[in-house]
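Pilot study result, target chain (346 residues):
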Amino acid sequence: MEIIQKTYCSDNLLSEIKGYIDRTKSQVAVTVNSAMTLMYWHIGDSINREIIGGHRAAYGKQIVATLSKELTEQYGGREFSERNLWRMMQFSSKFPDLQIVTPLVSQLSWSHFLQVMPLEDDLARNFYLTMAADQRWSKRTLKAKIDGMLYERTAIAKQPEELIRHDLDELRDERKITPDLIFQDPYFLDFLGLQGNYSEKELESAIVSDLERFLTEFGNDFAFMARQKRITLDNEDYYIDLLIYHRRLRCLVAIDLKLGRFQAAYKGQMELYLRWLEKYDMVAGENKPIGLILCAGKNEEHVELMHLSDSNIRIAEYLTKLPDRKLIEQKLQQAIERARNRLNNQ
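Predicted structure:
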């Protein structure tokens, strides 16, 4: 009777080969995605130049319809439908600088670009795509950030256009991030489920019990350090409500929670916390700590006159219940305009 001898490969060998295959397929997928997105840009650019450069705007619909018919017959599928060709045209017109598009397509999908194209503000589109690439947002996360008006709430939106472009360029080209790209105003804390009247302790407890969502609202790279961090000066104890850390800024962030509107006395209290942290808690290589005072409300002129940025302190409102979206949009736009007008006057 013939004995058939079986040879078995080791689990390590199989795992190693699977790793090669999976990595290669992943790299191929990224390469194909990048090439396809760049192809869409070039197609849109070619059509736009034909219609606009050739002074044939009146025949735009007929040109697109004819192209769609010819390309679909040649390549099949719905990829070159009239709707998709118009999207490609919109893509190249809203992102005319190919030098900005090229590095992003290797990190973002065509779906990411489709998410931002309805936005009218060029700076907002640039912000969302640059942040999506840097933070590795999925399409769903990007949509949630846009729906949550992250750009309008981020401090960078209140800066002059030149500074916004500069900071976004540095983030895209050098992965250098600034506090203005991280800190927001207001913060949406509606997920805490707080109703009616509540104390500072209840607010703090709600945050700690849902710490993951709280840090997600703050953004990537934050890590929780302590709750009610005790500091002692001249035998007197003080407590920092929350202490977190940002990896890329390489600094501690002290958070003070306040139920009411911002008061001038809060500045001195936070300065004390920051100087103590700077003296006793900073380690080699870290930057100076940042203070964040979260209030239920604030007077913009009051905050402006105190020059809080000189002390590395930021003030932000928090909302535990979201009002009508249009009202939020209006308030945010007014805040951005006030900040930019103030900077222009300075």
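One observation from the pilot: Residues 67 and 270 are 63 Å apart (CA to CA). A full batch analysis is planned for the follow-on phase.
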